[in-house]
Amino acid sequence: MKAAYRVTLRSIGTFDDVNVILVNYLLLPLVSLIMFLLIAFGASQDYSRILVGSVITTGISTGIGIVVASTVYDQNINLLDDIFSIRPTFKNYWLVKFVIAAVVLSLETILLGVIGLLVLNKVNIIPRLFLALPFEIFISVLLAYFCAVWGMKKENPYWLSNIVTGSLIILAGMIIPVSEYPTWLKFFAELLPISNLIDWIVNSNIFSQRMLILLIKILVWYLICILSTKIIHSKLLEK
Predict the structure, then answer these.
(1) pTM score of the predicted model
(2) pLDDT of 187-214, one tens digit each?
C-alpha cells in the first residue's frame, strides 16, 4: 500500500519538488487570500460568505486537480488499458488518489479558512468550517472522479476538469446567492452541492434543511459517478 502512495504522488506533476508544492498549495493561495483581505479590511460589508466560498472552491479545485492529474499520467504511460482489463479494486486504485487529494485540500482549507475568518473576526464560523470538511472532500472526489472518467482516452483528458474548476466560483454563488441567478444559470448552479455547502457553513444551524439537501445532492452525484463508470467502461470495451 505504501508503494501505491509513492507511485501516485510521483504521478502528480505539482508534487515533483517541495518548492513546487509550497508555491502551488501554500504561497499562491495565501497571496490570493491576502489580496482578498486587503479589499475586505475596513469595509462595512460582510465578506464572510465570499471568504468561505473562496476557500471551499479552492479546496475542491485542488482535489479535482490532483485526482485528474494522476489519472492523466496513467493514461500517458498506457496504464489505463491494464486498469480496465484487470479492473483493480477501489481500494487499490482510486482510494489512494482520493486520500492524497483529501489530505491536501483539508490542509489548504483549514489554513486559509482559519486565517481569513480570524482576520474578519468571524471566529464563530471556524467550527462549522471544520465540520464541513467531510462534505467538501466528498464533493471534491466525486467531481474529480466524474471529470477523470469522462476524460479517459480523450485527446484532451483535462477538457471537463478545466470546465468544472473554471466554473466553480460562478456556480458556487459566492457573491450573489444562487436564488437570484437567471433561470438558465440557476439550473446549472443547482446541479452542484457547493452553494448548499456554503449556505450551511455561513447561515444555518448544524442540523437543518440545508444539510438534508446537501446530503441528497451528494448521493445523487455518487449515483451519477457509478453510472458514468458503467457507460465509459462499456464504450472502452467496444473499442
Answers:
(1) 0.89
(2) 989 999 999 999 899 876 777 788 889 9
pLDDT, one tens digit per residue, over 102-136 is 999 999 999 999 988 998 888 999 999 999 999 99
Identity of the amino acid at 230: K
User: What span, in angstroms and rounded, lies between the C-alpha atoms of 48 and 54?
Assistant: 10
